[in-house]
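2.7 Reproducibility. Because tokenized structures are sensitive to small changes in the input, we list the exact sequence used for Transposase, including any N-terminal residues retained from the expression construct. No trimming or masking was applied before prediction.
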Amino acid sequence: MKRKRYTEEQIVALLREADEGRSVDDVCREHNVSKASFHRWKSKYGQMELRDVKRLKELERENAELKKLVADQLLNIKVLEQVNAKKW
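Resulting structure tokens (single pass, no recycling of outputs):
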């Protein structure tokens, strides 16, 4: 899995720099970030605080685990239905 270049803490700090009055161009140039990445982060994290961002990541991870559990259960159900559908 590809390692992310910036942590959530760094992203929030970068967004706060731009909120404090520095231009987006200057912030992006200083941190070597494209404007597209900056605006993607801004749309995702917006005005969130660091604790909110950490909670969002935790919820996303939990949601992924739950989706995997549901998919596994559905697969088990389908297999059992196929086994029970055969005439003995």
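Residues 1-48 form one domain.
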